[in-house]
Amino acid sequence: MKALVLAGGSGTRLRPITHTSAKQLVPVANKPVLFYGLEAIAAAGIRELGLVVGDTHAEIESAVGDGSAFGLQVTYLRQEAPLGLAHGVLIAREFLGDEDFVMYLGDNFVVGGINDLVDRFARERPAAQIMLTRVGDPRQFGVAELDASGRVVGLEEKPAQPKSDLALVGVYLFSPAVHEAVAELKPSGRGELEITDAIQWLIEAGLRVESSVISGYWKDTGNVTDMLEVNRLVLESVEPSVRGHVDDASELVGRVVVAEGAVVERSRIVGPVIIGHGARIRESYVGPFTSIGADCAVTGSEIEYSIVLPRASIAGVGRIESSLIGHDVEVTPAPNTPRAHRLVLGDHSKVQISS
User: Which residues form the Nucleotidyl transferase domain (predicted)?
Assistant: First the structure.
């Protein structure tokens, strides 16, 4: 079995972060979300991986390399534009050959890995095997319709009127039969080749499509709210470790990781928190579910339930929470007078200002 990981999306829902960074490399607990998927694939015993990349290919190729750090052999597959999940399968046809494969969306996060899913597929060998989970607003996802016996009878991508609350999780397993389905597809109304249409083709062709409703944790980390929630979940399982310097005037409470080279002075850290290599925390409070990236500086400030990417600086700010702060950002207090807001914002930013 091979693996196909799709990492060519532009990440519009994470702008402005993704104007300058691949969405699959935004860190969760100071590790790119893409890496969790690669580790899950390797843990399932899969070694050959095709990685579909787009405009951010240079950054992703630099981060992943040849895949040996994950126990994988990576082949990069260029996608000229994000033309749909099934388009990713189409351009990977030569790489995949006639082997079964798992397709994993590079910005998805699945707790517990995919070992059981892969083992089940190997035993039963349907044409396709999908994972489903119940969601509050299925209009944002591919949606499955099941019959009374639990068999998949229909699939629809981002329907205006969903027939169920069962969304497709971003992990799929396919036999080579899917290639015939993909070859028959026409672009949807969104201008994309939809993987839901390919699976629907398999169903209508009389081939077996199996599904399982997962009770574990899954998130599509395509927006800030979900990124912060996944960060919270991962930090829940961290073990405390102090390899950097923490002075006697500081207090660490709960599960706190202070990486080698990090410095904590005259500060209070309430876990779960991870403080990256070379970060400097001085006269500050860092609250639960916060990841501070490498070489960041937090001085005279308070922050919690947030992700701070490498080399960002926060100084003299009373309180920050529920935030995603990008690489090399500087956050400082505004002058008290005149009473006005001075903003420099990237395209598609969202700002909440207290009146």
Answer: 2-235
